[in-house]
Amino acid sequence: MKTAIITDSGSSLSEQQAKELGIFYLPLQVMNGTETLLDGVDLDQRMIYQFLHEEADLSTSQPPIGILESVVQDIKKQGYDEAVAVTICPGLSSTMSTLQARCKYMELPLYAVNTFTTCFVEQYLAVSAKKLADQGMCGTDIKARLEASISHSDTLIVPDDLQHLKRGGRLTPLAAALGGLLKIKPILKLNASSEGKIDVFAKVRTMSKALQMTVDTFKEADLDERYILYILHTDASIEGRKFYEQMKEAFPLTEIVFDHIGPVISVHTGIGCMGAQYIRKVDFEDNL
């Protein structure tokens, strides 16, 4: 059984990086006025930060149908029997449902993995899926192995303001209602408990209190060497580095990665956003 792995640019991978990993890639779209750019193809981190600082009128959309069809055709042409898809969660994008429809129409068996999140947890799962496929594991077992890790994962987001998320329609009604409140720094969650939608986790008064609460919340998960932790930011490297150091002190046994929130997700988080994600590492041993 030959199994292909599909991800999208919500993973923060570029098209070139995905190609080097042997992963099939779907670029989400970013619209800047009348211009449409493919995330990870002709849009990078530097460009999205420039657009955000210019307060450009940005919006996002799922990958073009033509690219979806082309990817499925390529998978079939290369002799794959099935595919596993690890994409931005259905609560944020219709990418997965559209891909499922295309695969059904084009008769490619597809195992859809609901990450309940995006960004680097999505990337980690896609890369892990590829490793499992290279070990000869079938789609059913790859999905089960990934879902075992997803059940021990979480994403918390602390935006500097909610206007980008509110404008993009990515908030639950309760979270959107906070957008007009002054002196409120909401902590937002994106996980299985929120069904992969961005919802309110807590409300505090300052960014420093929000970040400390994030650290304290993650402590409840007993993070150790079995986990990987991601500290992410949208053009806020100085504050992000301080947050990273907080996490290093709190979780000395845990692998911690410091990076940017990817371009297409940055459109919705806005400048100054902080994010933290963790996931239990995928089990690569043949014992499930």
TrEMBL record:
Q: Which UniProt keywords apply?
A: Lipid-binding
The UniProt entry, under SUPFAM superfamilies, shows: DAK1/DegV-like (SSF82549)
In terms of InterPro entries, this protein maps to: DegV, DegV_C, DegV_domain_contain
Q: Name one GO molecular function term.
A: lipid binding
Transmembrane ranges, per UniProt, are none
PANTHER family, per database record = DEGV DOMAIN-CONTAINING PROTEIN DR_1986-RELATED, FATTY ACID-BINDING PROTEIN TM_1468
This protein is called DegV family EDD domain-containing protein
Q: Which species? A: Copranaerobaculum intestinale
